[in-house]
Amino acid sequence: MTTQPDNVDTVLANGLLNLWYPICPSGFVGRVPVSLRRLGKKLAVWRDMEGKLHALEDHCPHRGAPLSRGIVLGDKLACGYHGVEVNCKGVVVSVPGSPGCKLEGSTAVRAFHVTERNGAIWLYNSAENVDEPPPLTLPEELISDEYSSFLCYTEWRGDYRYVLDNVMDPMHGTYLHKQSHSMALGETTAKFRVRDTETGFVFEKEGQRDVNFDWTEWADTGVHWMRLEIPYPKTGGPGGNFIIVGSYTPITPELSAVFHWRCRRLTGWQRDTWRFLYKNRLEARHWAVLEQDREMMEEMEPDANQREHLYQHDMGIVKLRRHMRNLAGQQIESGVSKRGV
């Protein structure tokens, strides 16, 4: 039996609807269907002969067998259990064992729009089948030719909302990452403020900029993303500050898909120099920093956020949590959350 998402925590645990989410690196999906659990759903994702991506709920409408175990017929999947064919819009186009039965012609499977950008596959988490999704609007670091980036993908045990909290907490860089080559400087105390933007808000230290991990931005452009900058020493190569863009997707309530794009603004020979330097020297250091975050998050109890004593440094976390809960409440009130089941 499917649990109806009738409360805010259930909606948030599965991910808000009618938003774009990154679901996996591009290399995860080829012409053999892949089964992925994401956003409270089990998905079948595949490429047709032209390389175009398609995604359906991984559930045959006949008996519930996984469509991902079937055969690719272009933009259709033929269930491996009884041959039922479902196209990429979720319409049953053929029931070989019982031609002409009422299942044929019905839209019986959830279909999802997917696209590929910056080394990741993105899925529009629609509440119901839609003909056209809204555009995928990403920050300039991921769309402008003036930037170069590397995708860092990992999976962390725990609720994805703890990852959001971690990124919306600049002060932890001063302590958890104090041995890092890029986060060893700056004050160990700080006051913070919140500054609203057209798409979200910035949570920043007062009186300190471009010294350490000094601010985080959260934005909603039809996809939720976060951005921060970390100053680089000269040994980090050309390009100014090191920029991180993050987006986070629930796999299950106990597992999170964590996407970070590591970006710098540069072109020409400077881009080539930095990319070489990154792969040969800097990447290992960045993974070491990320591992510190992962270990801390995975060792936190699932109910840790129910036994907190927050202070001024946590204003950004409180604001983001309240905003996310308000968005979930709006989906419940409008009935969107139930249509997404």
From TrEMBL:
<dbReference type="Pfam" id="PF00355">
    <property type="entry name" value="Rieske"/>
</dbReference>
<keyword id="KW-0560">Oxidoreductase</keyword>
<dbReference type="InterPro" id="IPR044043">
    <property type="entry name" value="VanA_C_cat"/>
</dbReference>
<dbReference type="InterPro" id="IPR017941">
    <property type="entry name" value="Rieske_2Fe-2S"/>
</dbReference>
<keyword id="KW-0223">Dioxygenase</keyword>
<dbReference type="InterPro" id="IPR036922">
    <property type="entry name" value="Rieske_2Fe-2S_sf"/>
</dbReference>
<dbReference type="GO" id="GO:0051213">
    <property type="term" value="F:dioxygenase activity"/>
</dbReference>
<dbReference type="GO" id="GO:0046872">
    <property type="term" value="F:metal ion binding"/>
</dbReference>
<dbReference type="InterPro" id="IPR050584">
    <property type="entry name" value="Cholesterol_7-desaturase"/>
</dbReference>
<dbReference type="Pfam" id="PF19112">
    <property type="entry name" value="VanA_C"/>
</dbReference>
<keyword id="KW-0479">Metal-binding</keyword>
<keyword id="KW-0001">2Fe-2S</keyword>
<keyword id="KW-0411">Iron-sulfur</keyword>
<dbReference type="GO" id="GO:0051537">
    <property type="term" value="F:2 iron, 2 sulfur cluster binding"/>
</dbReference>
<feature type="domain" description="Rieske">
    <location>
        <begin position="20"/>
        <end position="123"/>
    </location>
</feature>
<protein>
    <submittedName>
        <fullName>Phenylpropionate dioxygenase, large terminal subunit</fullName>
    </submittedName>
</protein>
<keyword id="KW-0408">Iron</keyword>
